[in-house]
């Protein structure tokens, strides 16, 4: 569902790109594909992108206790 055009209209292209990266890294590491473990750099990058997606979700949809805008900087 990442490729759904309405999702990009809702989130913007940056979140879609991050979600696609997370999915692709997971598929790359899964046994049904190459089954090769991710490098420490790739794993760290994946967690960073996942954090950005989760941060966006919290900023957008939390009813209370929203994280501050720009609290962790932009990368």
Low-confidence stretches: none
* Number of helical segments with 4 or more residues: 3
Q: Tell me, briefly, the overall form.
A: globular
Helix and strand run:
HHH
Determine the N-to-C terminus distance.
25 Å
Instruction: Estimate what percentage of residues fall within beta strands.
Output: under 5%
Averaged pLDDT: 83
**Structure summary, number of beta strands:** 0
Q: Structural class, please?
A: mainly alpha
- Can you give the helix content as a percent range? 55-70%
Q: How much is the radius of gyration in Å?
A: 14 Å
Major β-sheet annotation: none
How many discrete structural domains? 1
Features:
61% helix; mainly alpha; 75 residues
Summary, kept brief:
The chain has 75 residues and is mainly alpha-helical.
Structural topology:
Blueprint: H1 5-11, H2 13-29, H3 40-61
Helix pairs in contact: 1-2, 2-3
What can you tell me about this protein's structure?
This protein is an all-alpha fold and 75 residues long. It has one domain. The protein has three helices and no strands. The protein has helices spanning 5-11, 13-29, 40-61. The longest helix is centred in the C-terminal third of the chain and has 22 residues, at 40-61. It starts with a helix and ends in a 14-residue tail after the last helix.
């Amino acid at each position: 569902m990442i490729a759904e055009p309405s999702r990009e209209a809702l989130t913007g292209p940056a979140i879609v790109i991050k979600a696609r990266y997370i999915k692709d890294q997971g598929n790359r590491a899964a046994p049904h594909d190459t089954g090769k473990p991710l490098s420490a750099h790739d794993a760290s990058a994946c967690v960073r992108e996942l954090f950005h997606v989760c941060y966006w979700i919290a900023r957008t949809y939390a009813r209370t206790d929203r994280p501050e805008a720009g609290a962790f900087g932009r990368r």
